[in-house]
Write a structure and sequence with these properties.
The protein is mainly alpha-helical. It is built from six helices and no strands. About 55% of the residues lie in helices and about 0% in strands.
Length: about 120
């Protein structure tokens, strides 16, 4: 998976922003409160702590919610990404059935993840 950034690798910016970028935002109408947009979604524990039966039930709820959302919104992206991460265990399980192949396991999981993303997008 992707490496995590830690404090020892994160570099501090050496330049400063021009004063016009430091002023508060003037257009409050354009600001969307993401907490309001995500209201009604269930609280989701860490993905490795979700049991398979719970993952199926949660996926059904998230697919119903995804169907009612407009594509391109923050809420749509959140629900879509949550569905992908929630079902990665299924991809890993399916990939484990192909261990006897000469392909590296990372490649098989990558292809399975791409297939999962395409399936969610087709929904």
């Amino acid at each position: 998976m992707s490496p995590r950034l830690d404090g020892s690798r994160t570099h501090q910016a050496t330049s400063t922003l021009p004063p016009e970028h430091l002023d508060p935002i003037e257009h409050h109408d354009a600001v969307v409160d993401h907490d309001d947009a995500l209201a009604g979604l269930p609280d989701i524990p860490a993905y490795d702590e979700v049991a398979p039966a719970d993952a199926r039930a949660l996926s059904k709820t998230l697919f119903e919610r995804l169907e009612s959302l407009e594509e391109g919104t923050h809420e749509y992206a959140y629900v879509r990404n949550t569905l992908v991460e929630l079902n990665l265990a299924l991809v890993k399980f399916a990939a484990s059935r192909f261990r006897s192949r000469s392909e590296p396991m990372e490649d098989i999981i990558q292809v399975g993840t791409i297939g999962l993303i395409k399936a969610i997008d087709r929904f």
